[in-house]
Amino acid sequence: MKLEELKVYELSMELGEKTWAIVEKWDHFNKETIGKQLMRSVDSVAANVSEGFGRFHYKDSKNFSYYSRGSLYETKTWIRKAKNRNLIVEIEYIKFEEKINLIGKMLNSYIKSIGEKMTNNQ
Predict the structure, then answer these.
(1) Which end of the chain is more exposed for a tag (fewer CB within 10 A), N or C?
(2) The domain containing residue 49 runs over which residues?
């Protein structure tokens, strides 16, 4: 299996690009405060999935997937702050929340699946 075949990875990449398209339009102050934090957390979701995928040991893969999930929840906080500070409109916020919740469910399923073959074969 290739990394690009993981749906959770692809959706995480899409979320990062969608976020970038919004943040790059903000003024300097908002980019420097919320924008940088938001971009770091959202980009970390896909980055940690890929790093774990590349480790080839299920315990490392699982750990990096946990980091990815943590970054996803951090992203959720920054998105909420952006909405509260009128940097994104309500409809954008709702779409972000839906995508984040979907990725969260997929990450949980992916984490659960990591190492199953190893433990089932013993």
Answers:
(1) C
(2) 3-116
**pTM of the shown model:** 0.90
Give yes or no for a contact between 13 and 29, defined as CB atoms under 8 angstroms apart. Answer: no
CA-wise closest residue to 79 among 103, 113, 47: 103
CA distance 2 to 45: 17
Q: What is the pLDDT of residues 36-93, one digit of tens each?
A: 999 999 999 999 999 999 987 889 999 999 999 999 999 999 999 999 999 999 999 9
CATH number of the domain residue 105 falls in:
1.20.1440.60
Q: Which residue has the tokens 């040991």?
A: 57
Tokens of 84: 């509260």
- Give the Cα separation of 23 and 84 in Å (integer): 15
Nearest to 8, CA basis, from 57, 36, 22, 16: 16
Whether 122 is covered by a domain: the verdict is no
